[in-house]
Structures are given as C-alpha cells and as structure tokens.
C-alpha cells in the first residue's frame, strides 16, 4: 500500500472504532472561517455544547480564520485538512455567495457536504439611539439618500448583502448605491452597531437577539416568512417584498469518504435528534433544516446555481 494511503488509514482508525462501537468520537477539529461571535462561530460552539454534553464527542477544538467573507478560511481548510477525518468546516449560504461575488478559486465544491443543520432569517438593526424608529422610516431614508446610511454586514455576496440589495431594488434604487460596510464577523458587526459606528446592520437574527432583548440595539425587521419576535415585523408584512434566509451546515475535508464520512454524518444525525439541540434551536431562533447525504450534496449544487443567478441579477457577479 502507498505510504500516503497507510497514513490516511491510520488517522481514520479512531473514527472507525468509534463508529463501530457507537462510542463518542474522540475529537472534532472545527475550522470556522470568521471571527468569534458570528453565526458560523455560534453554530460551531453550539455543536460543541450539545455534542459534548450528550456524549457524542469527547472534545472539540476550534480555529477561527476570518477573511474574504469566509473564502480565506475555506482555502486554508482545503489545503491543510485534506484527508483528515476529524476535521469539520462550518459554512453556509453566505459563503456560497461570497465565493461567487469575489470569484474565489475555492468554493464549497472543494469540500465534502456532511449535514445542513439550521436556517435563519436576517434582521435589520440600528443603534438604540437611532433616529430610525421603525422599518418604514429607515426605508424612506435609504431610498432618499442611500450613501448617507452606512450599513454593516458580513461581506460582499453574503446573505446580509443580498438582503440589503433586494431591499434597495424594492425601493427603486440600484443595489450598489447602498453604502455597505463589510466586517470580518458577527462580533465586529455587533460592536460597530452598538457603538454607533454605522447607522444600521444586516445580520443573522441569532447574532443580535440578545442585544435586542437587552435594549442595546433596535430591531426594525426580519427577512423570513414569520416573525421571530412579537414586536419585530418581517420585511414582507411591512410592505417590502424581500424574503431571504441563511442556511448553515458542516463540511468534511477533501478526500474524506466511506466510513469516516459516515461517522461524521452519524454524529450530526445523533446531535440533531437530541432534545437539547431542539431546545437550542428554539432559543436562538434557528429553524431545523436538517439534511444529509446525497440530498444535501444536491441542495448545495442547486443553491450555488440559484445564488449565482440572483447575484448576476443584482449586479454582484
């Protein structure tokens, strides 16, 4: 057997044993392509919280690598984690769009789909001291003078950016007229809004729900089909035909297949079935979007094609 094949087989042995014995995985090493505090990081830490407590994995380690709206971390994962069965990459819809918009040489086509876990609406928030009391006043100002309202988000082509661009289109303005300010992660976006460094932000509901509850920011509207808070309307019910959500999930490293991949899929399946996971989803306003195997792979390919079409329509690709 080739030396590289022997090394890969040896590295997979703990995973194969754990899968056969239905014991906890010895470890999982996550690469999160964003700074701490954002949606991808939040999902990874939630997996650790529930997975360790449920006895599904003994320990988790994290590497946060922001940059390029996730594409920097993706490139690192592809080149350094190849064939490693204990490695997982946290990503989702925003990385699909960012890779297309930036013409990145790497995309989710270069990693192995494991499981789609969550779906989440975005929220438009403003500082607690903002002059914008509701979504109508914000939209009127955005339509009148878009360059005068700096709006924070995760990066070009992300769900945050797409929500803003679609709102601009509904308002009769060109998407690129908006003054979109890219930040490396949810934590930086939160700080910018709370500190009134920007006039507004678009981000995942889970990234701002605690700040909304504490009164640190004001939520104007969400981008889903249903309300996530009794006092926060959706864009659609407010008269703005914008409905966009953000899915997130897990991906294995290139060349991981067979039994090691099944072990990772079984881990995600067991995690999703725990009562603690369902409770966490409800608490954070995440929808259960569980999907694995060929169905998830087909979904990712379709999402890439549909996202590219949307970004072209908006002038972002």
From TrEMBL:
Family annotation (InterPro entries): BUG, Bug_dom1
Keyword Metal-binding: no
Keywords assigned by UniProt, alphabetized: Signal
Signal peptide residue numbers: 1-21
A Pfam family reported for this protein in Swiss-Prot or TrEMBL: TctC
PANTHER family for this protein: TRICARBOXYLATE-BINDING PROTEIN, UPF0065 PROTEIN YFLP
Recorded family membership: Belongs to the UPF0065 (bug) family.
Protein name, as recorded: C4-dicarboxylate ABC transporter substrate-binding protein
Species whose genome carries this gene: Teichococcus deserti
Lineage of source species: Bacteria, Pseudomonadati, Pseudomonadota, Alphaproteobacteria, Acetobacterales
């Amino acid at each position: 057997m080739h030396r590289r094949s022997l090394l890969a087989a040896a590295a997979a042995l703990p995973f194969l044993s754990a899968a056969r014995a239905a014991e906890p995985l010895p470890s999982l090493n996550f690469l999160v392509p964003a700074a701490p505090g954002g949606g991808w990081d939040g999902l990874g830490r939630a997996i650790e919280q529930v997975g360790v407590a449920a006895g599904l994995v003994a320990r988790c380690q994290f590497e946060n690598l922001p940059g390029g709206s996730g594409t920097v971390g993706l490139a690192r994962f592809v080149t350094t984690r190849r064939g490693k069965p204990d490695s997982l990459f946290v990503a989702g819809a925003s990385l699909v769009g960012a890779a297309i918009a930036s013409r990145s040489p790497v995309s989710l086509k270069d990693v192995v789909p494991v499981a789609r876990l969550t779906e989440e609406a975005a929220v438009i928030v403003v500082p607690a001291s903002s002059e914008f009391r509701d979504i109508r006043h914000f939209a009127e100002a955005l339509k009148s003078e878009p360059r005068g309202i700096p709006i924070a988000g995760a990066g070009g082509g992300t769900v945050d950016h797409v929500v803003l661009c679609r709102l601009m289109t509904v308002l009769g303005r060109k998407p690129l007229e908006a003054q979109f300010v890219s930040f490396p992660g949810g934590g930086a976006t939160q700080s910018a809004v709370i500190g009134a460094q920007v006039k507004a932000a678009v981000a995942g509901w889970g990234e701002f729900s605690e700040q909304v509850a504490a009164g640190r920011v004001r939520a104007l509207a969400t981008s889903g089909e249903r309300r996530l808070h009794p006092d926060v309307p959706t864009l659609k019910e407010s008269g703005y035909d914008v409905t966009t959500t953000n899915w997130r999930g897990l991906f294995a490293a290139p060349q991981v297949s067979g039994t090691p991949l099944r072990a990772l899929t079984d881990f995600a399946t067991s995690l999703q079935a725990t009562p603690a996971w369902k409770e966490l989803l409800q608490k954070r306003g995440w929808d259960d979007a569980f999907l694995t195997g060929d169905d998830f792979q087909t979904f990712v390919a379709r999402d890439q094609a549909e996202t590219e079409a949307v970004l072209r329509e908006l002038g972002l690709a």
